[in-house]
Amino acid sequence: MGLSEPVLRAVDAVMVSVPDLDAGIAFYRDRLGHRLRWRNDDLGQAALECPDSATEIVLSTTQRAEPNWLVRDASQAAEIVERAGGRLLQPLIDIPVGKVAIVEDPFGNRLVLVDLSKGVYQTDADGTVIGVARGE
Q1: Is pLDDT above 90 for 124?
Q2: Which residue of 6, 56, 101, 114 could cross-link 47, Cys pair, CB 3.0 to 4.6 Å?
Q3: What is the pTM assigned to this prediction?
């Protein structure tokens, strides 16, 4: 195919389904020791730190458990996966920090493709999202 660089850059996050953010935070932060990085109640999500990695554990009340792959451009990455034999499951959607597309590889594996084209979350001292800081 001759791509100049790989499509999947890093594991951005591992999504973990929880019935309630407070219960999820109580388990992952208070009992397992992970530091809360951010919380966005409007999305029903909260992220906790993996201390030896940039990968986040993202608790979600609305999404299923699966990895999220960091890509440079979610739209372009989805097109590349489709051309390579995969298929688009969810067209590109806007999220506060960028864009997301969900594709499937030829083997039935879901790949959540995330770009941070709008930046990263800004938080207050408690980890509550208060805005988005433009990324570099």
Answers
A1: no
A2: 56
A3: 0.77
